[in-house]
Amino acid sequence: MQIASPSPAELEPLFTPLTIRGLTIANRLVMAPMTRGFCPDNLPGPDVSGYYRRRAEGGAGLLVTEAIGTAHPAAVGDTGLGESNLPLFDGEDKVVAWARVVEDVHAAGGHIIPQLWHQGPMRLPNGQAPAFSPSGRYGDPAKAAGYYLKQAQIISAAPMPVPTDEDIADVVAGFGEAAQASVEAGFDGLALHGAHGYLIDSFLWSETNRRAPPWGGSATERTRFAVEVVRACRVAIGEDRPLIFRFSQWKQQDFRARLADTPQELEAILGPIADAGVDLFDASVRYFDTPAFPEHGPLSLAGWAKKLTGKLTGAVGGIGLRSGKYESDDVVAEPTNNLGLALRRFEAGEFDIVSVGRAILQDPNWVRKLRNGEALPAFDPASVSVLT
After folding, report:
1. Which residues are catalytic?
2. Between helices 165-184 and 224-237, what is the axis angle to 10°?
3. Which PANTHER family does the entry mention (predicted)?
4. Maximal C-alpha separation, the chain
5. Average confidence (pLDDT) over 304-325
6. DSSP for 67-102, written as a single string
7. CB of 291 closer than 8 Å to CB of 298
8. Has residue 3 got a pLDDT over 60?
9. Which residue, 205, 203, 239, is CA-closest to 224?
10. Between these two residues, 351 and 6, which has the higher pLDDT value?
11. CA 133 to CA 123: how far, in whole Å?
């Protein structure tokens, strides 16, 4: 459904401040985390720093970095899709490098937080460590589609041991160490990648977590790993910095996967994670306007997360751009007037921030142009290969 594109005056609600714990951001338009692969030796350089600084200058209320690997040998690596030069938080040199990025963003008047991840079953084994999944499972490779089909075939064919309790404890500790490093680097808060089939999500998803308690079992019991990670990170970042948790229904292993089939099951999953110390749930969907549980009404996934937990939430997925096909990762290279839909749901109280990915990746001044009523450019898929 399309409605008229709102005028700058009508968009003003998106330009009101929001306080999340001890952090106040100037507006509700957030740069979503996007993997970039421009960190040779796992370190951000001046080009990465300039990339984030320009988005702060361009008016985004908050920047969430590309995903940064935790202090664990299996955190990041080759996913079978040619990804390389991924950042890590595993030493003092990384703290120093990211501190320069933070300083540049702060000098531009912006706020920035890192997104921590562990690739889990989405990573090939290497000389440092085997792949890591709660039950040694990638998922069903036959259900992967489009861009991820090759990845599924490569990764699912590799041996994937079942981790011990001690192995899992080491990963939790790695998240805590990375969170502490983010504090030392001066970041304004923290985000956790708990979606898309990566490690945290693989503990939440019944397809990849076949363990018995304490790390598996019912929907609520499968939250144990996420809860322990959130607790470790909360201790590291303290009580003033906000903690954002990204979650999703869909997985790279299966676009049609469901983390929860009913609102009650979603509450059983998000409730313990919320109680552990999350301030805002980032509901990642293929398209933000899709009803999460159509049989229960039109609420989006972000709307259900807010209703069920009482926490702040964020919408992300196809905002400002026409979405790709559900069965693939194709991108239609044209903008779309869906900001009116986002504004309508925002004003209805479904979510508190609006996260924009590819549009801001391509144009650092996208937020400023939006506010000024300027024309927004068509999306060029080639922009994902450069730092503009």
Report:
1. 198
2. 30
3. NADH OXIDOREDUCTASE-RELATED, OXIDOREDUCTASE-RELATED
4. 56
5. 86
6. EEE-SSTTSS---SS------B--SHHHHHHHHHHH
7. yes
8. no
9. 203
10. 351
11. 10
Instruction: Report the percent of the chain where pLDDT is more than 90.
Output: 81
On average, the pLDDT of the chain sits at: 92
* CA–CA gap between residue 167 and residue 206 (Å, rounded): 20
Instruction: Write out pLDDT tens, residues 154-174.
Output: 888 888 999 999 999 999 999
Angle between helices 263-277 and 224-237 (to 10 degrees): 30
Instruction: For residue 338, name the pLDDT band (cuts at 50, 70, 90).
Output: confident
User: Please, where are the H alpha helices in the chain?
Assistant: 46-57, 92-107, 149-156, 165-184, 199-204, 224-237, 263-277, 301-309, 339-347, 358-362, 366-372
Checking phi first, is residue 372 left (phi over 0); if not, alpha (psi -120 to 50) or beta? alpha
74-107 pLDDT, tens per residue? 999 888 877 789 999 999 999 999 999 999 999 9
What count of residues does the chain have?
388
Residue whose tokens read 């990963």: 171
Nearest Cα residue to 75 out of 113, 36, 136, 116: 116
Residue in the block written with tokens 């955190």: 75
Q: Which residues pair with residue 92 across a beta bridge?
A: none
Burial 75-106 (b: 16+ CB within 10 A, else e): bbbbbbeebeebbbbbeeebbebbebbbebbe
Relative orientation angle of helices 46-57 and 92-107, to the nearest 10 degrees: 30
